[in-house]
Amino acid sequence: MAVSREVIMDLLPLYLSDEASTESRDLVKEHLENDPELARLATQWKDRLPEPPPAPVNPDAQVMAYQEAKRQIANRVITLAAAIAFGILVVSGGALAGAMLLMSR
């Protein structure tokens, strides 16, 4: 069956992204074997295609990742709060010790 170059050009994006049916793939492949110019163009287009999107993540894995991120954020907040409280105690303790030293003179 003779198919025009325009029809092959219409099918080419589906062929390059591996979304064409088996019949369409065979048709395009056969045409590309007989049309080196279009085959070269198809190779250039294939090189320009973006990477396919990542596979969908398992919902349970998403929940686990969310819970882990939440736990890590909570740990950081607690650590920061403890560091600030300790710093305040050190500064206020030093100020209190300094005031007591001045009062004892």
The domain tally reads 2
Query: N- to C-terminal separation?
Result: 110 Å
**Portion in strands:** under 5%
- Uncertain segments: none
Global mean pLDDT: 88
> Helix content range of the residues, please?
over 70%
Task: Enumerate how many helices there are, as a single number.
Answer: 4
Shape field = rod-shaped
Structural class: mainly alpha
Rounded to the nearest angstrom, the radius of gyration is: 34 Å
Largest sheet geometry: none
Say how many strands there are.
0
Oligomer: single chain
Order of helices and strands: HHHH
Characterise this structure.
With 105 residues, this protein is mainly α. It folds into 2 domains: 44 residues, no CATH class; 49 residues. It is built from 4 helices and no strands. The longest helix is centred in the C-terminal third of the chain and has 45 residues.
Detail the topology: elements first, then pairings:
Blueprint: H1 5-16, H2 22-34, H3 36-48, H4 59-103
Notable features of this structure?
105 residues, mainly alpha, 2 domains, 4 helices, rod-shaped
Question: What's this entry about, in short?
Answer:
The chain contains four helices and no strands. The chain is mainly alpha-helical and 105 residues long.
